[in-house]
């Protein structure tokens, strides 16, 4: 059904900035913070040019947190976490040159069956991802991917690996900058990406990924979502389809925010990236302003409450 232009613009704007008041305390526009260590976190560097049989079993002690920096590891070592402390709860792995991540024969994450949170930071050059690499993570609750496979990995390949988290406790997924301008795969097939079964995903952050289109329905593959944060860009109009689907068909949804809304000079009164207060502008007037300045390089977020 065709809508009058004014009504269509108003609907698009309303849907792209809607938000309901809820319990989630995190800021939508996901910006990876520094990987900070605490007294209960071990920080270890593994240099694959110097350490051929990498193993962390003697270095984690009784810590509940672990940060591993991989240097010169084109192929991420397998068996890295075998026999680590069963008290480990959170693990972060950082790599700038990792290209191959294996899963079979005592794969990379073997030994991490007890952890609740895994963050993979970097790995932009990753092009070979084992479909079973995440299989050992049977108690995982939170998965954060920052830059993971940004230049070459396809959404389908990532989805095939994520499938192994079916039946786990996974409830939160963050995907930040996992697709760059260099990646030829810029159309997200939601059904292929989120193939998981028997999981209850409550929170999804999908931010700063370069895409040109979306297929599939988020409500069909992640029906339990209550929190969604989607980072957009001026050409990401495919988000409208996703937002309408989520708003109408996700019965548990209480908080949805889309950010990276272009801001005109007249509204640019905050440092770049900050949230604009709920100003007394009509939907139509804001829509016209945003469309007029959609090529601006600086973005702010705009949020409207909905019942």
Secondary-structure blueprint:
Elements: H1 5-17, E1 18-19, E2 41-47, E3 65-71, E4 90-95, E5 100-101, E6 117-122, E7 128-129, E8 142-146, H2 155-162, E9 172-176, E10 187-189, H3 190-193, E11 203-207, E12 213-215, H4 218-221, E13 227-231, H5 239-249, E14 255-259, E15 261-262, H6 283-292, E16 299-300, E17 304-305
Parallel strand pairs: 1-17, 2-3, 3-4, 4-6, 5-7, 6-8, 8-9, 9-11, 10-12, 11-13, 13-14
Antiparallel strand pairs: 15-16
Helix pairs in contact: 1-6
Q: Which consecutive residue ranges, at least 5 long each, have pLDDT under 50?
A: 1-27, 261-270
Number of strands: 17
Q: Based on the coordinates given, report the CATH architecture of the largest domain.
A: Alpha-Beta Horseshoe
* Main sheet specs: 9 strands, parallel
Indicate the percent of residues in helices: 10-25%
Number of domains: 2
Give the structure's gist in a few sentences.
The chain is α/β, with parallel strands linked by helices and 307 residues long. The chain has helices at 5-17, 155-162, 190-193, 218-221, 239-249, 283-292, and strands at residues 18-19, 41-47, 65-71, 90-95, 100-101, 117-122, 128-129, 142-146, 172-176, 187-189, 203-207, 213-215, 227-231, 255-259, 261-262, 299-300, 304-305. It folds into two domains: 1-22 and 273-307, no CATH class; 39-272, Leucine-rich repeat, LRR (right-handed beta-alpha superhelix).
């Amino acid at each position: 059904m065709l809508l009058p232009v004014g009504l269509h613009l108003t609907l698009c704007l309303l849907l792209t900035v809607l938000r309901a008041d809820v319990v989630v305390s995190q800021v939508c526009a996901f910006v990876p913070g520094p990987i900070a260590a605490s007294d209960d976190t071990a920080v270890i560097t593994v240099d694959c040019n110097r350490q051929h049989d990498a193993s962390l079993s003697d270095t984690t002690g009784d810590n509940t947190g672990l940060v591993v920096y991989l240097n010169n590891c084109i192929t991420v070592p397998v068996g890295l976490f075998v026999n680590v402390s069963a008290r480990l709860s959170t693990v972060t792995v950082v790599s700038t040159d990792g290209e191959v991540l294996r899963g079979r024969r005592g794969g990379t994450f073997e030994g991490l069956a007890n952890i609740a949170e895994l963050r993979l930071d970097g790995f932009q050059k990753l092009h070979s991802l084992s479909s079973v690499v995440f299989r050992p993570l049977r108690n995982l609750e939170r998965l954060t991917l920052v830059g993971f496979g940004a230049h070459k990995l396809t959404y389908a390949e990532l989805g095939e690996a994520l499938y192994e988290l079916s039946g786990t406790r996974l409830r939160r997924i963050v995907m930040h900058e996992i697709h760059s301008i260099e990646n030829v795969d810029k159309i997200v097939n939601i059904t292929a990406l989120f193939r998981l079964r028997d999981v209850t995903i409550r929170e999804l952050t999908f931010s700063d990924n370069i895409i040109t289109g979306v297929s599939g329905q988020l409500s069909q593959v992640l029906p339990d979502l209550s929190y969604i944060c989607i980072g957009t860009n001026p050409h990401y109009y495919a988000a409208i389809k996703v937002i309408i689907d989520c708003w109408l068909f996700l019965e548990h949804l209480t908080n949805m925010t889309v950010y990276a809304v272009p801001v005109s000079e007249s509204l640019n009164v905050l440092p770049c990236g900050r949230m604009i207060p709920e100003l007394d502008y009509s939907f139509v007037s804001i829509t016209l302003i945003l469309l007029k300045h959609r090529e601006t390089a600086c973005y702010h977020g705009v949020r409207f409450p909905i019942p």
